[in-house]
Amino acid sequence: MPGKLKNIGVVGLGLMGSSIIVSFLKAGCRVIALTPLSEELEIGKKRVLEQLNLCKEMGLLSENEDYYTNNLIICDDYNFLKDCDLVNECVIEIEEIKKDVYHKIENVVHPKCIISTNTSAIPINILQQYFIKPDRFMGIHWAEPAYSTRFLEITCGIKTNVELAELVQKEAINWEKEPTLLYKDIRGFITNRLMYAVYRQGFELINKGIVDLAGLDKCFQYDIGQWITVMGLFKRMDYEGLDKYVSSYSVIFPLLSISNEVPPQMKRILEINGRGIHNLKGLYNHSSESAEILEDNLSTFNEEIYKLADLYRIKLKQFKLSEIKK
Amino acid sequence: MPGKLKNIGVVGLGLMGSSIIVSFLKAGCRVIALTPLSEELEIGKKRVLEQLNLCKEMGLLSENEDYYTNNLIICDDYNFLKDCDLVNECVIEIEEIKKDVYHKIENVVHPKCIISTNTSAIPINILQQYFIKPDRFMGIHWAEPAYSTRFLEITCGIKTNVELAELVQKEAINWEKEPTLLYKDIRGFITNRLMYAVYRQGFELINKGIVDLAGLDKCFQYDIGQWITVMGLFKRMDYEGLDKYVSSYSVIFPLLSISNEVPPQMKRILEINGRGIHNLKGLYNHSSESAEILEDNLSTFNEEIYKLADLYRIKLKQFKLSEIKK
């Protein structure tokens, strides 16, 4: 059940926006779903209801469908946002469009309304400059589909009131998330930043002839996949025995990549305009059939791992393992 | 069914050794299980049979138990190794002891027998110097439990005959592994090297005050865990759309950590002799109960994800997605 943030606005009814809407509905919030494009109102409605249905089929809804549709208004009129406690913008990643949307939102909402963006492309600090009251603005970055993933990054811009971000983090637990608060806005947020460290290191090993691309991929997939869901990074270290890490840090850190170069195979991809499975030009050979299987696989796995992870999540919660040593 | 490597020797009957033995038995190999410590023969026998039983309980054995025990000799006499096609050493990580074991192995096996080590602590290049025929020696590094994980790193030392390593890689597919061949011996092999890049980057973000340790941990766990099992690293990039990575590489690589320093919280851990869940002094607060749950969780999850991953693995195999563009 929602706490202090009961009335939620979501602006933008794309794939991401509609799954975020369903996530809020599932949490018992009232949602104003707004498209900034009147001509997309009908397709937007359809998309939201489709996502709601998918969520229902996954068995993630505890009430019947009416309960959720009664809590939902789909519209193209910004005035409907006036009672919102939180608005989450999910429109296209174009700064000028977002700027225009923010003006329209800020024009109608009450002074205490928190405004947020799902952007992963434009720094929060840059978008924040378009606000009259910038302290109420922050990033709320979801994974897709929002209703069946736990991931949530809440990012403070330089002018964000941290207390508001902490409030959102607290509320996000009611949305059934495992929210992470970023006190500063950094490019790539957390997981991208960490994964880019992996890409940099990975390409270096490949290009030094130590391992081939598929070999490295399998290694990471089958090693990390075997424990990440129950442990995360640092709990894994506690499990493996912390002592052995301290000494190997000083040996291995100096061996790690410090390259800033785009790897040659990625430059070649750029030359042939490779977009991976989207135009069947990628690091791997893809056919339209294999690309489809990959999409299907992710969609089914997503559902399975969400439910599986929960069993372990609940057991550990009892022991408040998420509390960190001071 | 095994191909060219039918007769396998495993030296060392610890937890790792016994689960490797079961992995070979499961693959239909004949196994000589040898303990270098006569006084550990009985406990070693017990350990191997326990692991075989666990493997059976997981439903991973296709034959009845007799089939496997008939293929198994547990002994303390190196002469039993004389007909082995491959010997895998899994004794304690002490160079002098390994050296002694290698002399005893090489003394009895036939000239074509491949000899390997499960070490993760001592470089293959160093151990290789203890061989009369060093070209037949390589690393074969397993994850635990060996019979219910797909991970396998095969590592060439500087004197290893690469063709032999490629033969082992090919055979390892019969052992139901997803084997990775390392053409050169590097510290930390592949996954450790990649994960150390994550640790370095992660601690930097934490120590710059951008995120706290538990927040970063959740982020990585719930983002990566949501897809790693079906995609790996590079297939994920193909899926997300490769084009967007090329431009962000040149932006984000220069922002990544290049620090060689052991993070201060890890130095503090060293000062208090913190060994994580093993002495309840770790990065997280642990109690003996929560440590036990963590162990239980990993053990159950390990089984679940092994089976779950297989569904996706089989579907993709049909399309040979693991073939890389030349």
Core attributes:
globular, oxidoreductase (chains A, B), homodimer, 12% strand, Rossmann fold, NAD(P)-bd_dom_sf (chains A, B), (3S)-3-hydroxyacyl-CoA dehydrogenase (NAD+) activity (chains A, B), 326 residues, N-(1-d-carboxylethyl)-l-norvaline Dehydrogenase, domain 2, alpha/beta
Walkthrough of the structure:
Chains A, B: It is an enzyme of class 1 (oxidoreductase). Chains A, B: It comes from Sphingobacterium daejeonense. Chains A, B: Belongs to the 3-hydroxyacyl-CoA dehydrogenase family. Chains A, B: InterPro entries: 3-OHacyl-CoA_DH, 3-OHacyl-CoA_DH_CS, 3-OHacyl-CoA_DH_NAD-bd, 3HC_DH_C, 6-PGluconate_DH-like_C_sf, 6PGD_dom2, NAD(P)-bd_dom_sf. Chains A, B: Its EC number is 1.1.1.35. Two copies of one chain form a homodimer. Chain A has 326 residues and is an alpha/beta fold. Chain A has two domains: 7-182, 3-Layer(aba) Sandwich (Rossmann fold); 197-317, N-(1-d-carboxylethyl)-l-norvaline Dehydrogenase, domain 2 (Orthogonal Bundle), CATH 1.10.1040. In chain A, 48% of the residues lie in helices and 12% in strands. Chain A has helices spanning 15-26, 41-57, 65-70, 95-108, 124-128, 162-174, 191-207, 213-224, 228-240, 243-252, 264-271, 288-317, and strands at residues 7-11, 30-34, 72-75, 86-89, 114-117, 137-142, 151-156, 178-182. The two termini of chain A are 31 Å apart. The mean pLDDT of chain A is 93. The interface between A and B is large, with 126 and 125 residues.
